[in-house]
Amino acid sequence: MRVSDPLFNLQELDIRVDDMRARALLMATQKRDLLALIAELESAAKTAEDNKKAAQVIAHKHETEIQNLETKIQSFGDKMLRVTSPKQIQALESEKLAAEEKLASTEESLLETYGQVEECDKKLDELRKNVDSSKERLTTLKQDSTREIMEIKEKIGRELSQRQELVSQVDASLLKMYTALRAEFRGPVVFAVDEDGCQGCGETLSGSSFLRLRNPDRKPFACDNCGRLLVFSGRIE
Ligand SMILES: [Zn+2]
After folding, report:
1. So where are the chain's domains?
2. Residue 14: helix, strand or coil by DSSP?
3. Cα(228) to centroid of ligand 1, in Å?
């Protein structure tokens, strides 16, 4: 057994635990993101609903105005019969013309408002479908992740109880270095190398460092550049 074997085993275990924790975190993040998306969609749906209601109120005003204008325009026939002077006739005619123009423009506005209501409906429909599908996704995610997170917790528990045993096998000063490196770097901090390059930082080791690395006991050696631990795995003549 190499001096470094328990350390490599410890690192493998720690990386497995890291990966499981990252997986659990990812699921929690996905849930949180999905919840935020649903809230966003629901708020957009509320806005669309409010816009629709506002457009409906405007449409109703236009409809009432159109009715009033139509009644007014119809009443001009009777009024015409009651006046005799050309001046009065002219005044009524221009009044009627103004009412007809107003009617035409109000009808146009009404059509435009109906268009807005329709657009709000379309948007609402799309948003509600999105809310529904997002909620379905959330339900599935919750079910799946609850089960998986429980499994992960159990696995992590088992790994951590094994970890204590491994830790007791690692040389105390190495363990101290390893712990400090783990706090500093993500991913592996101990590498088996058969060349004069550090797999952590990519730096080429100096001749004397490489010579020390190729010690017959294959003791771990800290990289000059990044401090990660290297263990020589090549042939030693
Ligand atoms: Zn390095």
Report:
1. 9-169, 175-232
2. helix
3. 6
Neighbours of 87 (CB within 10 A): 9
What residues contact 162, with CB distance under 8 A and at least 6 apart? 13
- The pLDDT value given to residue 196: 85
DSSP helix/strand/coil, 222: strand
CA atoms within 13 A on the CB side of 132: 6
* Alpha carbon distance 179, 19 (integer Å): 17
Residue 23 Cα to ligand 1 middle (Å): 28
pLDDT in tens, 116-165: 999 999 999 999 999 999 999 999 999 999 999 999 999 999 999 999 99
> What is this structure's pTM?
0.74
Distance 207 CA to ligand 1 centre (A): 15
> What's the DSSP call for residue 228?
-
List CB contacts of 49: < 8 A, sequence separation 6 or more: 120, 124
CATH class of residue range 9-169: mainly alpha
Would you state the structure tokens that stand for residue 36, as one six-digit string? 């935020």
What pLDDT does 217 receive? 85
Quote the distance between the C-alpha of residue 69 and its chain's center.
Answer: 53
What lies within 8 Å, CB to CB, of 217 at 6+ separation is 2, 3
Query: What's the chain's average pLDDT?
Result: 94
What is the 194 CA–ligand 1 centroid distance (Å)?
A: 14
Q: What is the pLDDT of residues 20-39, one digit of tens each?
A: 999 999 999 999 999 999 99
